[in-house]
Amino acid sequence: MKIRNKATNKKKKYVKISIALFFVFICIIIVIVSNLKPENLVVKDIDINNVKNGIYTGSADNNLVKATVSVEVNNGKIQNINILKHDHLLGKPAEKITTSIIKQQSLDVDAITSATYSSNTIRKAVENALRKGE
């Protein structure tokens, strides 16, 4: 009988420790997630006419979304934007913003609905690329 009680007590002890560790793990996850606040990226428009011909790469990171792009400029116009890397949560639709940037030849374009953080991060990456050609 004593052996069975020892085994039962040991099992209860492991269950209690497992539950405690689970709650500690959950608390750590909550703290990490609550500290992941996206940085508000300020995108400034650039006079494309001041950017030299060439292909430039730029990156941006807002703590939740990261983007790296290459931007081709020729004769004062953005010819092409390639997204080289886009780490996002649900922001895949934001990649369409490059079409608007090329069409309007400006970074002052509307963000893609439901993908605002990704849109702004891509816009900032394009700005950073263009700044290399000024």
Describe the structure.
The chain is of the alpha+beta class and 134 residues long. It has two domains: 1-35; 48-131, Sufe protein. Chain: A (Alpha-Beta Complex). Helix content is 43%, strand content 21%. The chain has helices at residues 2-35, 97-104, 116-131; strands at residues 54-61, 66-74, 77-87. It has a three-stranded antiparallel beta sheet.
Main sheet makeup: 3 strands, antiparallel
Instruction: Write down the CATH class of the largest domain.
Output: Alpha Beta
CATH topology assignment of the largest domain: Sufe protein. Chain: A
Low-confidence stretches: none
**DSSP summary, beta strand count:** 3
Main sheet strand line-up:
1-2-3
Overall average residue pLDDT: 89
